């Protein structure tokens, strides 16, 4: 900033008794300094002089518990990011934001109240991100039915019944749902993922803390359906302690990242027995043909990734931690050809790995990086 402009700015700021300003000089500042108590900074009259503001990003401020009613003055606002904040409710005054096109409420765990018809009032809304939002997804889906321009949605379901009911909404399939998170399931030991398989734009799927879930069913309807999971690139499984295998991930032919954390009951990743029940998948050498990153951590019963060696033509990294019974990797001397594969893990695990043959061992010994 030019010195003259800087001095003028500080002079104007100094003349104001009401407004509060952040000043941090000489440190090549590129972003707003952290404020410990945002509620003291963003007061009701904070936005009075910003009628032309189009982008407001308040993300990653967990101390921000409430939005001031003065936000209604931002009549030109098009982009509002409230992700990972501590807000508990959205003020009804947001209805004045008629030009809003982007609303991000991801990671707002404490958000419990959104006024009725608020979401549906944003008639120009194109992007609505609500993964990890504390507010009920079904109530939101009822309102997004009326949003003609909505084309991107991220969302969290907290029960199998919620997921089943959501599949009845037209908007569930017509808009581009990119991220779905299934969290804290308590009402089902088995899960049918037919509805999710039909989501043509689904990129990321997370199953987290589904402690009672024992099985994700493989259905013939999925196999026969054109384009099932074709956009899915990332699958994350976290604390699903009763799952014994995750064979259903083979239905994501373009999967790039498979991240499995703290699934204590997991015994194998791909069950050859389950694949054998499906003629279309039996002996499929294209399993994980697009996989780039495989991360397995905290599965003490895990013995097998897959019974046979796989080509892994795109694989870049394998990370293994706290999986003491996993002694063999699905690799042979032809696996990951042309890739600089990195295998990360504990040294005590690595020294006990069993290899397909001596040539495989020689090929992959230089790939190891201790963690």
Quick rundown:
The chain is built from eleven helices and 15 strands. The chain has 371 residues and is an alpha/beta fold. The strands form two sheets. The protein has a 13-stranded parallel beta sheet with strand order 1-2-3-4-5-6-8-10-11-12-13-14-15. Strands 7-9 form a two-stranded parallel ribbon.
What does this protein look like?
This is Probable disease resistance protein At1g12290. By secondary structure, the chain is an alpha/beta fold. It has a domain of 144 residues. The chain is built from eleven helices and 15 strands. The protein has a 13-stranded parallel beta sheet with strand order 1-2-3-4-5-6-8-10-11-12-13-14-15. It is elongated and about 70 Å long.
> What is the strand arrangement across the widest sheet?
1-2-3-4-5-6-8-10-11-12-13-14-15
Quick check: average pLDDT?
85
Low-confidence stretches: none
Q: Structural class of the helices, strands and pairings?
A: alpha/beta
Biggest sheet: strands, sense, closure? 13 strands, parallel
Write down the overall geometry. Answer: elongated
* Number of contiguous helices: 11
Distance between the termini: 44 Å
Cα Rg: 25 Å
SSE topology string: HHEEEHEHEHHEEHEEHEEHEEEHHE
* Helical percentage: 10-25%
Q: Using DSSP, what is the number of strands?
A: 15
In terms of DSSP E residues, the strand content is: 15-25%
């Amino acid at each position: 900033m030019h010195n003259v402009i800087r001095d003028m700015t500080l002079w104007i700021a100094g003349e104001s008794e009401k407004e509060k300003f952040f000043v941090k000089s000489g440190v090549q500042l590129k972003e707003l300094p952290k404020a410990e108590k945002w509620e003291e900074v963003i007061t009701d009259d904070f936005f009075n002089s910003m009628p032309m503001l189009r982008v407001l990003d308040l993300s990653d401020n967990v101390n921000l518990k409430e939005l001031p009613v003065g936000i209604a003055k931002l009549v030109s606002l098009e982009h509002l990011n409230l992700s990972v904040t501590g807000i508990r409710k959205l003020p009804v005054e947001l209805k004045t934001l008629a030009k809003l096109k982007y609303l991000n409420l991801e990671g707002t765990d404490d958000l419990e109240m959104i006024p009725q018809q608020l979401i549906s009032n944003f008639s120009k809304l194109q992007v609505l991100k609500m993964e990890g939002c504390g507010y009920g997804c079904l109530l939101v889906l009822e309102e997004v039915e009326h949003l003609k321009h909505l084309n991107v949605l991220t969302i969290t379901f907290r029960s199998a019944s919620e997921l089943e009911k959501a599949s009845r909404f037209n908007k569930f399939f017509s808009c581009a749902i990119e991220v779905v998170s299934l969290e804290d399931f308590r009402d089902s030991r088995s899960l049918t993922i037919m509805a999710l398989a039909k989501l043509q734009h689904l990129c990321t799927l997370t199953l987290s803390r589904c402690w009672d879930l024992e099985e994700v069913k493989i259905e013939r309807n999925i196999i026969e359906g054109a384009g099932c999971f074709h956009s899915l690139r990332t699958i994350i499984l976290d604390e699903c302690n009763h799952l014994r295998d995750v064979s259903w991930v083979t239905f994501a032919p373009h999967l790039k990242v498979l991240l499995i954390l703290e699934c204590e009951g997991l015994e194998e990743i791909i069950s050859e027995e389950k694949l054998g029940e499906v003629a279309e998948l039996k002996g499929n050498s294209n399993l994980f043909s697009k996989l780039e990153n495989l991360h397995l951590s905290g599965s003490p019963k895990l013995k097998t990734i897959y019974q046979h060696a796989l080509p892994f033509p795109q694989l870049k990294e394998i990370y293994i931690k706290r999986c003491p019974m996993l002694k063999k990797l699905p690799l042979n001397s032809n696996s990951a050809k042309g890739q600089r594969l990195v295998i990360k893990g504990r040294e005590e695990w690595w020294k006990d790995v069993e290899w397909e043959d001596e040539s495989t061992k020689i090929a992959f010994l230089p790939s190891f990086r201790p963690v």
